[in-house]
Amino acid sequence: MIKSPFVTSDCVIIAEDGEVLLIRRKNPPFQGHWALPGGFIETGQETVEECAVREAHEETNLRIEIDRLLGVWSRPGRDPRGHTVTCVYLTRPVPASRKTWARGCDDAADVMWIRPDSRALDSLPFAFDHRDIIETVFPAARKKGF
């Protein structure tokens, strides 16, 4: 029997002012840690793109529009629940001017808009490999030496 990894979608939601939306996880694993909005695909029911849009809305109350695929992260061990492969999308709120509508919902206890090159990121505990994702997507963050 073939055992396949779990598939998830994560979103880098970026506002017009360049800030990125993070969620504080409500549940284990990594309860209380900061993460990109996202979650597991509903197998047989949706695409990874539809999963990204659904999860972003469920966790942040925002409607989003996908700009493009940023990459796929698949390192075994990135999720303690099992081998998980995530498709990470660059997205933006729709309408873009409604940044203030964001709030923690569903699996998110809270949300925070932050500049990806902010010194405040240095002290945030991140879930999974989401710090690595931010450093890859935003080279200025990596140069700071998170």
Key traits:
single chain, 4-stranded mixed β-sheet, Nucleoside Triphosphate Pyrophosphohydrolase, globular, about 150 residues, 3 helices, 3-stranded antiparallel β-sheet, 7 strands, alpha+beta
What does this molecule look like?
With 146 residues, the chain is an alpha+beta fold. The chain is built from three helices and seven strands. The chain has one domain (6-143): Alpha-Beta Complex (Nucleoside Triphosphate Pyrophosphohydrolase), CATH 3.90.79.10. Helix content is 18%, strand content 32%.
Q: How far apart lie the N and C ends? A: 41 Å
**Number of β-strand runs:** 7
Round the Cα radius of gyration to an integer and report it: 14 Å
Q: What name goes with the CATH superfamily?
A: Nucleoside Triphosphate Pyrophosphohydrolase
What is the level 1 CATH name?
A: Alpha Beta
Mean pLDDT: 92
Count up the helices: 3
The percent of residues in helical segments reads: 10-25%
Q: Spans of 5+ residues with little confidence (pLDDT < 50)? A: none
Per CATH, the architecture is: Alpha-Beta Complex
Instruction: List the secondary-structure elements in sequence, H or E.
Output: EEEEHEEEHH
Helix-strand category: alpha+beta
CATH topology: Nucleoside Triphosphate Pyrophosphohydrolase
Please outline the major beta sheet. Answer: 4 strands, mixed
Number of domains: 1
Strand order of the largest sheet: 4-1-6-5
Shape: globular
**Range of strand content:** 25-35%
